[in-house]
Design brief:
The protein has twelve helices and no strands. With about 325 residues, the chain is mainly α.
């Protein structure tokens, strides 16, 4: 079991580091993050499928294919601006949709896609239980939003401040988000093993403790500081891409200036991602208990399913985007 866990973890780390290196060294101006898109979509599709399967195992009717397609639609929507660039045309700066607006449009499309699919298939079995159409549609919409929106925010995070930092700020923000969230998981686990005395929510996860949660928050804050103090300056100090970096001096004031401090940013970012990551972890535990399953899947030997890897990141992605967009690690 441990050997499988270590082997799978090593493979995932090599793949992630390889794609991050490719994304860093071979940049396509205006399409920052395009090299990471296949990996993010793999995690989105895998997570959506596992949640849909788990819902079905718990007796919740759901059209699994519809749920996965809708989740993929929402997750990939944040990539529209840089896919636009790949079509050999600059993304229009005056586009009324903006960059994040595509996520809203895709979310609305996912709702109607779920409805249309239900209309098309309703009654074909010849024996419909009253209320099942609503439950199936609601389940598909839930999966598409719960998976699609957070994954879209990770893609959007990669492109944050791309024009003014040659895409390097978003890369640092994405790496920091993953590191801080996963270190919070590890810190909570080891702190809980060593010091855990008081259960956090034993009905959902008997192994999680208050001491472990505190340890996870402290560990994530330390890693957040190290990333903001060393990773960000190292990446942003690289010679600028003169074709994309704007020649202007930004003067930070107020909240942005405060959050740009490594210590202040870490005190905000670390706990925010650690706590939200714990919520994501507990949310998966809730669904597992309700559905009567141990793991979300078995695609990743030793780790379980894809959702077992993405659970904390799903919940941490939106707070991470908000933190970096409001000044943390400011470019």
């Amino acid at each position: 079991m441990l050997r499988d866990r270590l082997r799978t973890s090593a493979i995932l780390i090599v793949i992630v580091l390889g794609l991050l290196s490719l994304d860093y060294s071979i940049r396509i101006p205006g399409a920052d993050g395009v090299w990471l898109l296949p990996l993010l979509l793999f995690f989105a599709i895998g997570t959506a499928w596992e949640i849909a399967v788990m819902l079905a195992a718990g007796g919740q009717p759901v059209r699994r294919t519809v749920a996965v397609v809708a989740a993929t639609l929402v997750a990939s929507s944040a990539a529209v601006p840089f896919l636009w660039v790949l079509s050999a045309d600059d993304y229009p700066k005056n586009c009324p949709v903006g960059r994040l607006g595509w996520i809203v449009l895709a979310a609305a499309a996912a709702v109607f896609l779920s409805l249309i699919a239900e209309m098309r298939e309703y009654g074909k079995s010849g024996n419909e239980t009253p209320g099942n159409a609503i439950r199936r549609t609601s389940a598909a919409i839930f999966v598409s939003m719960y998976v699609g929106v957070p994954m879209a925010m990770l893609i959007a995070l990669r492109g944050l401040h791309a024009e003014t930092t040659a895409g390097r700020f978003g890369l640092a923000a994405l790496v920091t988000t993953i590191l801080v969230t996963k270190v919070a998981d590890a810190g909570a686990y080891f702190s809980g093993r060593a010091l855990g005395r008081h259960k956090l929510i034993p009905r959902l996860s008997p192994g999680k403790t208050i001491e472990g949660a505190i340890g996870g928050i402290l560990a994530s804050t330390v890693v957040a500081y190290l990333a903001l103090a060393f990773l960000f300056p190292a990446l942003l100090a690289r010679p600028a891409d003169t074709t994309t970096v704007m020649n202007e001096t930004a003067v930070k004031t107020g909240l942005s200036a405060l959050l740009a401090s490594s210590w202040v940013g870490a005190i905000v970012l670390g706990p925010a991602l650690a706590i939200s990551g714990m919520v994501g972890d507990l949310a998966e535990s809730l669904f597992k208990r309700d559905s009567g399953v141990k793991d979300s899947g078995n695609l990743l030997p030793g780790l379980g399913g894809v959702w077992d890897v993405t659970d904390s990141l799903l919940a941490a992605s939106v707070p991470a985007f908000f933190c970096f967009a409001t000044g943390v690690g400011g470019p």
